[in-house]
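Write out this protein's structure.
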Amino acid sequence: MCQELSEQRYAIENNFRRRLPDLCPPEREAKLNNKLKSWWLLDFASFQKQIKSQFKSSIPLAERNDWQDYLEGEQAKISILNQQITQHEAELNHAVYGLFDLTPQEITLVEA
């Protein structure tokens, strides 16, 4: 289950990343910096700043609401997937601890 959720998260990250060159003027190279590659960590103001810095062009005013909605919607999906992954990993860890009959002290050592 964790693998499937991680693949879904990666697909969302990659699909959004593939749309970013749409914001690059044709005369510029549409190369993404590290912050844009990790777009889900940016709020919209920071996202705009990175677009302007990297592509030397602003998001057109008429498109800003759409881009903000798209960014925030995809970030929400990633957040939900991250929560589900964390929950499933915790359940898996608990099951493994039970299989090995670990004591609370041993679990604390393993998780440290």
